[in-house]
Amino acid sequence: MTSTRPSSVVSHSETAEALRTENRAGVLVVTLDQPGDAVNKVDRTLGTALERVIEQVDRDRSVYAVVITSGKPDIFIAGADIDQFLQFKVEQDAENASRFGQRLLNLLERSRVPVVAAIHGACLGGGLELTLACHYRICTEHPKTVLALPEVQLGLIPGIGGTQRLPRLIGVRNALDMILTGKNIRAKKALQMGLVDEMVHPAILLEIATRRATELADRSLKPKRGGRGLAGVALDGNPLGRAVVYRKARVGVLEKTHGHYPAPLAAIEVVKYGLSHGMEKGLNEEARVFGRMALTPESRELVFLFFATTALKKDMGVPEPAPTPKTVEKVAVLGAGFMGAGITSVAVQHETLVRLKDTDMAHVGKGLAAVREVLKERLDRKQITRQQFEDMMVLAGGTTQYTGFGNVDLVIEAVFEDIAVKHNVLQVVEQLIPGDAVIASNTSTIPIAAIAKGLQRRDRVLGMHFFSPVHKMPLLEVTVTPQTARDATVTAVSYGRKLGKTVIVVNDGPGFYTTRILSAYMNEAGRMLDEGVQIDTLDEALLGFGFPVGPITLMDEVGLDVGGKVGAVMAESFGKRMMPGEGVRRVVESGRTGRKGRSGFYRYDEDGKKGGVDPTAYDLIHGGDRRAVPSGALGPVVGIDTSEIVDRCVLAMVNEAIQCLEEGILRSPRDGDVGAVFGLGFPPFRGGPFRYVDTTGADEILGRLDTLDGRFPERFKPAALLVEMARSHKRFYPAEGRPV
Ligand code: NAI
Known about the structure:
By secondary structure, this protein is of the alpha/beta class. Helix 13 (338-348) packs across helix 14, helix 22 (560-574) crosses helix 23 and helix 25 (642-662) crosses helix 27 (689-696).
């Protein structure tokens, strides 16, 4: 076996801006390091630079092996440069880009000398595809090292050989799992799957990579292949087994996407085609389908959401120049209920010391147990170590007194949705906490100004509206009043981001943005119940539009008691436009609470698993009268077709969203779209309510609203801003180029 050759620098050249090369005694170390960016991205500059390296290697006989690594801390390659996707005007443009990359990686794969990928940090999308064309892959054993093909999340398929090389390397089942979910694979798992050949400590990555490159060159090392496990081999090895895998994958995708996303289905077909027709034809098909997917409306909307969330990460929610946010190290959470415990579980995962306060030890204990459950799930899934689990639990301290409040940076109130209770606790708390601490309420409905009114330090008060379950839902809605101090806003925004949330900042009003538009949507569904529409018909119609759950199931999920309180506040604030349905009101008054109480519009088993519609709910809805009593409509309603159900719910929501923009509750359509998609499950492939108006056309939406307004006065009066936009043929976003 050849030992490592001395790593003296023989030559050093600036091959191109995107990378550096260094010939270490015959092993050419290529360090990817695109200037002016914190990450490496697959784009034309990187491609061209790599092409030159490959040509150089072919000419330069002093090079007998290549190592590709990254010069960025904790990033190998973050994926493709998404900006370039906007330049694709026709399918052929995207197809050409795919072919350019494929040709390059084919050259790399067929290089005269062995190429080793030395991976530390995120290795995503095109970055992973690049390493698949290398002859040996080493990654570091490090939490930041993750490998993934997240293209489907942008409505695409891997476009530079990923659909072909991955199944050949790790088997169809594992490859489809990665391609169809885009999920991150950590180092250890990558090694088990055979996605990488070796895993090493970061300190010796380059040394080992260089050694392996040398060993591959002198043939003392032959990479082992086929780390797909027994079941994988049995299934993948024969066409019948593969047919089962494809069929299962298709069923899985359809179950999850309800057929709304073309990319995952297309990816299955491309993998299948390539494995039965060979690599060359497979690559050809991959490029063609990549081109087709890149121009689908679904991909355009997902790319828009990518830009929107990226832009939000830089937005502190106050006019520039923004003050420096205060570091939040210690938080007091008031109320150890469902939300208080949820917030605590996320806070302790981000090194925050939490004082969790409730009225008695039983509630505190229940809250801490809920925190433990969330962390335990992470431990069971091996996402955290036992040590981390214990360290996190230590950060959560329960109390029934206000002990330990003297040095908190932030208070998050999550007591009952009752302004008197909120005032009671916050009036005590504001006397105890430091003068510059931020006072946040997690209320979902009550105007923040009304909460601030009962307090002395009104400039410290804002809303931090988390969504349930807190550890899963990605959105945080920060609500500010005209009195909220700028430094309080930026502190809440920056802390929310630290917790991993996508943060939108909105102005104050009943229900802020998200609860307000959700109420409009839910109320309309409730009215259709009154009119005699079946519970599951309503839910299925909205699932068909692309919501993850239907509105009636959502009522059960949120909790009918919670929904009832929200409904009352909204009705009080907005009058007839926001009046909940009569039937829903009766179900709430009956004491049913939805899934948590195992009784709502649907049946639930002891574990809270949803069954079918509960027929007795109809007795409550129709006040004991099983003949559906039409109400609300001007004329009798005889059956409502799916498109009307969808229009009534969705347009009520869209119109309310536009009104929020018009009134200045929303600062931008972008915030409105991100809030609806990430907080309420508005279908991502539709981009959000404002994108929906743009793609459908403001005049078309206005026309439909006008018709509904004629039938149901006071509920669908089109927002003035929409009328104006339809008249002047305006859009919320530019038709061309970067949307935000
Ligand atoms: P919950 O009923 O589960 O928890 C409330 C907790 O506050 C209870 O443990 C109660 O004992 C405690 N509490 C009451 N008075 C207290 C006091 N004076 N001092 C300390 N603790 C006290 O309610 P949940 O669902 O957690 O809601 C809390 C807040 O979060 C409400 O304002 C609600 O509107 C809001 N919210 C709820 C969401 C949900 O999906 N449940 C979503 C977003 C916000």
